[in-house]
Structures are given as C-alpha cells and as structure tokens.
C-alpha cells in the first residue's frame, strides 16, 4: 500500500510541477528562438536578465514581482526588438544594439521601474484603504448624529447600554 500524502505535501508537489512546466516552456521557447532567430534570442536573453532574477527571488505564489518586473522589462526591450527586426535580424545589428549603454539603461531602467512599482504598491494600497476607512467613519458618525437628532438622545443611550 502506498503512503498517504498530506495536503501540504501534495500542494508542494503541485507547486514544483507548475514551476517545472514553466521552466520547460521557457527553455523550449528559448531553443526555438535561438534556432530561428539567433540575434533576436541574444538580444532578448541579455535584456530579460532582470526578469529572471525577479523570478528567482519571488516568494509569492502568484508571482507578483515576476509579473511586474517582467511586464516593465518587456516594455523596455520592445523598442530594441523592433529596431533589430527592422534592420534585418543580423548578429552585427544585435551586437551594435547591445554595445550602446543607453539601450541597457532603457531595458534595465524599465525593469527597475517595475521593482519600484512592486515595492511602492503596498504603501499606496494601504493609504487608499486608510482614506476610504476615514471617509466611511465620518459618514457613519454623521448618520448616527442624524438618527439621534431624528429619534432623540435615548436612542444613543440604549445603544451604549447594549454594548
């Protein structure tokens, strides 16, 4: 008889298989890209390093860091990919694009903006929640004052006695 798996063990196994499947798809895509368009593959691999680092460091199950940095990294890489595509996908053009420091700044700077967005969002979300809670509290106090005015002080007294 096979040993029984606990819920956490099966969840861990599913998490590993999910990561393994994603890695397999990424390797297959990189191989296909390398075979069909090597200059594009070289440019993409060099430009997407921040996303790979984010994926390795991401502790969240939903991969928020990887998604944020990856989206911004792709946005910074897209103009260079279009330039390479327009020039004819030659290795010389890929080398020329990669030798320009401003292109590195564009690719990695966009990824850095992704990091900044990821790091700033919890603070921004907390501020928004706090502001909305304060607004709701003011509305409830105003409604309570309106009810006391409409029904009299004994309504407020009864409510405080019930607590």
Describe the protein's architecture and organization.
The chain is mainly α and 163 residues long. The protein has a domain at 9-120. 87% of the residues lie in helices and 0% in strands. It contains seven helices and no strands. It has helices at residues 7-36, 38-47, 49-57, 64-87, 91-98, 101-151, 153-162. The radius of gyration is 27 Å and the shape is elongated.
Give the total of beta strands.
Answer: 0
N-end to C-end Cα span: 58 Å
- In percent terms, what proportion of residues is strand? under 5%
Helix content: over 70%
Q: Give the SSE order as H and E letters.
A: HHHHHHH
Supply the number of helical segments: 7
Layout of helices and strands:
Blueprint (H helix, E strand, L loop, with lengths): L6 H30 L1 H10 L1 H9 L6 H24 L3 H8 L2 H51 L1 H10 L1
Q: What's the quick description here?
A:
The chain is an all-alpha fold.
Q: Which descriptors apply to this entry?
A:
87% helix
